[in-house]
């Protein structure tokens, strides 16, 4: 992938820009490389899920591929789970019920940092029976740039999906494919200088938490049982200067650990207080993270990265998976 990144304020969703690397520091613990993809072909990991057995699910944005990885193996190595037809990227992931995952599939242009309208769909990966069952749930032709995904609280059949371009959220029933736009809000919208607005989304109780990469914000909004807004959005925190929020993971206490470009992981408290957990060149454009074994009180998170695409003669550096101690 060849494109210019100098005009961007900082790296955003795709993890495809390069920038100044700061010295590694840790506030809570250590970082360990679990696995790094080979640099050829260039592979950027966009999102990560965790199965009940602790295996990770890795979505790549540079190819329509999903991998599985046992992070505790003596020599972890990913296995290709599925390659989606007619697409270029796999993005958001959510787990509506144990070992049943939904993922976003579509086409992204790394030249424009925008999705291709009409190309997006939602699929399921069902690990409750082996071999895993892969099923297309529905296409969402009105979507422009589907991205982050979350479960709808209280439902085993409905997920919420963020559209970074429209500044909107869709609900999708993974059983019958029914879908509709349930929210559109100015706090989700991209800016005139960057097209990626609402990015990561997660739910806790009756609240949807979100990041807006273009605006550099982390916030929340109350939601009703059908995923529609039930109140006003609340700004919780802003990304530090020259940094950019991407996806995040929530604890049971609603603390958020946010993957922050270019090389950091931040913890954001419900009151907006934030601290740097780690800043390391190993976290080369972190895109998402998940708690080990899916336990949100664990002290280890697995952070996935996009690395850096080839640019101006600089060789590409693929993304990887890293275990970070956060407490």
From TrEMBL:
Signal peptide (residue range): 1-23
UniProt KW Signal keyword: yes
Superkingdom, natural source: Eukaryota
Entry keyword set: Signal
Record's keyword annotation contains Signal: yes
PANTHER family named among the record's database cross-references: NHL REPEAT-CONTAINING PROTEIN, NHL REPEAT-CONTAINING PROTEIN-RELATED
This protein's name: Uncharacterized protein
Natural source organism: Extremus antarcticus
């Amino acid at each position: 992938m060849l494109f210019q990144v100098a005009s961007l304020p900082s790296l955003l969703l795709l993890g495809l820009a390069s920038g100044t690397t700061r010295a590694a520091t840790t506030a809570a613990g250590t970082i360990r490389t679990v696995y790094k993809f080979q640099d050829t072909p260039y592979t950027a990991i966009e999102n990560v899920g965790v199965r009940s057995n602790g295996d990770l699910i890795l979505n790549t944005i540079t190819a329509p591929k999903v991998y599985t990885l046992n992070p505790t193996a003596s020599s972890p190595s990913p296995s290709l789970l599925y390659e989606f037809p007619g697409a270029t990227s796999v993005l958001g992931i959510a787990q509506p019920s144990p070992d049943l995952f939904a993922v976003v599939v579509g086409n992204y242009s790394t030249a424009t940092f925008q999705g291709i309208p009409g190309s997006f769909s939602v699929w399921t990966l069902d690990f409750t029976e082996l071999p895993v069952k892969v099923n297309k749930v529905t296409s969402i032709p009105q979507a422009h740039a589907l991205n982050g995904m979350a479960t709808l609280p209280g439902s085993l059949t409905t997920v919420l999906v963020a559209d970074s371009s429209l500044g909107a959220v869709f609900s999708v029933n993974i059983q019958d494919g029914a879908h509709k736009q349930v929210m559109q809000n100015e706090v989700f919208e991209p800016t005139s200088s960057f097209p990626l607005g609402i990015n990561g989304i997660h739910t806790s109780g009756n609240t949807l938490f979100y990041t807006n990469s273009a605006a550099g914000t982390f916030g929340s909004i109350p939601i009703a049982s059908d995923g529609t807004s039930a109140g006003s959005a609340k700004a919780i925190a802003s990304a530090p200067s020259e940094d950019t929020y991407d996806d995040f993971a929530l604890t049971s206490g609603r603390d958020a650990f946010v993957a922050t470009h270019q090389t950091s992981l931040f913890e954001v408290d419900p009151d907006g207080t934030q601290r740097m957990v780690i800043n390391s060149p190993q976290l080369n454009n972190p895109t998402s993270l998940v708690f080990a074994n899916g336990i949100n009180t664990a002290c280890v998170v697995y952070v996935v990265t996009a690395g850096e695409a080839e640019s101006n003669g600089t060789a590409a550096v693929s993304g990887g998976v890293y275990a970070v101690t956060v407490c």
